[in-house]
């Protein structure tokens, strides 16, 4: 999301996307808007190679705080229990930086869970993480 404000020597554009914040001052508002659009696209494309250094566990905690806690009590409790179990049983995956998780990491998690529970349970657990990935 970009914000613009008039400053003494032009227009300041502030962009924040995917946890990365950028600011710049341009002579005109149109120039600031053009910069902001290009900067948002670059951040989303990962063109600068910069990503927030957030682990999967941190992303899960943020989701719990911002989304799960707003659910009904019984649903929130069930989600908290599932997340707690996942964080406890898979600390190596939880401690990985979010953008460095590969398909192989997720396949190892899936295979380990399939040794313990049914395929339907694994799918249900995977679905719980879907909003965190997006």
Explain the overall architecture.
Strands 1-2-3 form a three-stranded antiparallel beta sheet, covered by helices on one side. It folds into two domains: 2-45; 56-133. The radius of gyration is 20 Å and the shape is elongated. It has 134 residues and is an alpha+beta fold. The protein has six helices and three strands; from the N terminus they run E-E-E-H-H-H-H-H-H.
Rg value: 20 Å
- Average pLDDT value? 87
Quantity of strands, as a count: 3
Instruction: Give the uncertain stretches in residue-range form.
Output: none
Termini separation: 16 Å
Q: Helices and strands, in N-to-C order?
A: EEEHHHHHH
Number of helices: 6
Largest sheet, described in full? 3 strands, antiparallel
Strands of the biggest beta sheet: in what spatial order? 1-2-3
Helix content: 55-70%
Oligomeric status: single chain
Percent of residues in beta strands?
Answer: 15-25%
User: How many discrete domains?
Assistant: 2
Shape estimate: elongated
Q: Indicate the structural class.
A: alpha+beta
């Amino acid at each position: 999301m970009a914000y613009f404000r008039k400053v003494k020597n032009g227009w300041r554009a502030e962009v924040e996307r995917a946890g990365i914040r950028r600011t710049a001052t341009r002579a005109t508002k149109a120039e600031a808007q053009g910069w902001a659009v290009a900067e948002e696209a670059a951040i989303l494309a990962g063109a600068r190679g910069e990503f927030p250094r957030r682990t999967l566990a941190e992303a899960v905690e943020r989701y719990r705080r911002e989304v799960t806690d707003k659910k009904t009590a019984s649903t929130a409790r069930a989600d908290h229990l599932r997340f707690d179990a996942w964080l406890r049983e898979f600390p190596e995956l939880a401690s990985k930086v979010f953008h460095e998780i590969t398909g192989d990491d997720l396949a190892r998690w899936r295979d380990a869970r399939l040794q313990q529970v049914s395929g339907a349970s694994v799918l249900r657990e995977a679905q719980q993480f879907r909003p965190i990935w997006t």
